[in-house]
Amino acid sequence: MKLYDINVLDAKKQEKSLADYKGKVVLIVNTATGCGFTPQYAGLQALYEKYQDQGFTILDFPCNQFGNQAPGTEAEIGQFCLLNYNTSFPQFAKIDVNGPSASPLFTYLKKEKGGLLGSDIKWNFTKFLVDREGRVVKRFAPADKPERLEKDIVALL
């Protein structure tokens, strides 16, 4: 299986193929609206605005597995992000990133880049950077602020 073989559900629970992002540099993030890292939405939005015209996008996957920090519906989460951080990058349906009900996308990402602490996602705002060919090139920890990722994103653009 390759990244572009995976389908996900968008925020309206409509199926979407990740093949739609072929040729783009993609940052995939599991997020939460009630997390200590939630202010990272501002930095993510800044990166998106700065580089989207060069073929960069961010895919936002809300996840409620860590401390019940994304309890709202997709519509409520989307509204929160828009009102508080003016986000405009694609947001998807809530998912699980670990365990038996983990999204095939995150199962794939963890297999490709297990990280220093093993393959499980440890918390919200774990980030995976994907190149234009769909290769997972880097995994970033939740504490890694979006600004720290900029040089790696630019290198792939």
Q: Secondary-structure blueprint of this entry?
A:
Layout: E1 7-9, E2 15-17, E3 25-31, H1 40-51, E4 56-62, H2 74-85, H3 104-112, E5 127-130, E6 136-140, H4 146-156
Parallel strand pairs: 3-4
Antiparallel strand pairs: 1-2, 3-5, 5-6
Walk me through the structure.
With 157 residues, the chain is α+β, with helices and mostly antiparallel strands. It has one domain: Glutaredoxin. 28% of the residues lie in helices and 18% in strands. The chain is built from four helices and six strands; from the N terminus they run E-E-E-H-E-H-H-E-E-H. The strands form two sheets. The protein has a four-stranded mixed sheet with strand order 4-3-5-6, covered by helices on one side. It has a two-stranded antiparallel ribbon with strand order 1-2. Helix 1 runs parallel beside helix 4. The chain is globular and about 35 Å long. The model has no long low-confidence stretch (mean pLDDT 92).
- Tally of discrete structural domains: 1
Globally, the shape reads: globular
CATH architectural category: 3-Layer(aba) Sandwich
Across the major sheet, the strand order is 4-3-5-6
What summary fits the major beta sheet?
4 strands, mixed
Keywords:
157 residues, alpha+beta, Glutaredoxin, four-stranded mixed β-sheet, two-stranded antiparallel sheet, globular
